[in-house]
Design goal:
Order of helices and strands: EEEEEH
Radius of gyration: 13 Å
Structural class: alpha+beta
Low-confidence stretches: none
Largest sheet: 5 strands, antiparallel
Strand order of the largest sheet: 4-3-2-1-5
Helix content: 10-25%
Number of domains: 1
Strand content: 25-35%
Distance between the termini: 19 Å
Number of strands: 5
Oligomer: single chain
């Protein structure tokens, strides 16, 4: 199971020096239908347009520079994400 990072977390991916800020979790690629652990945009540039989004999985994260905000609401939502991820692995439909 993926130990989901909070939104706003700044990371780099393996093989890249570009810093990315996590903007979404459990994201489905619109063309392929593949589900990824994260969606991110370049940091510090931020969201530019849909073509500048990065989709990747947790095991591709190389370095962690900053951890986004975590409070009770985040922890409760993360629990729901983990349940949705389990459902995906069981082949069940997940509510968007």
């Amino acid at each position: 199971m993926t130990p989901f990072l909070p939104l706003g977390t700044i990371i780099t991916l393996q093989g890249s020096d570009a810093k990315l800020m996590i903007t979404g979790r459990l994201q489905r690629h619109s063309a392929t239908g593949q589900v990824y652990d994260y969606c991110a945009c370049l940091w510090p540039q931020g969201y530019l347009d849909a073509s500048s989004n990065y989709l990747f999985d947790h095991d591709q994260v190389d370095r962690l520079f900053y951890i986004g905000m975590q409070d009770e609401e985040e922890f409760n939502f993360r629990f729901r994400l983990e349940e949705a991820e389990k459902a995906l692995h069981r082949g069940m439909q997940v509510e968007e």
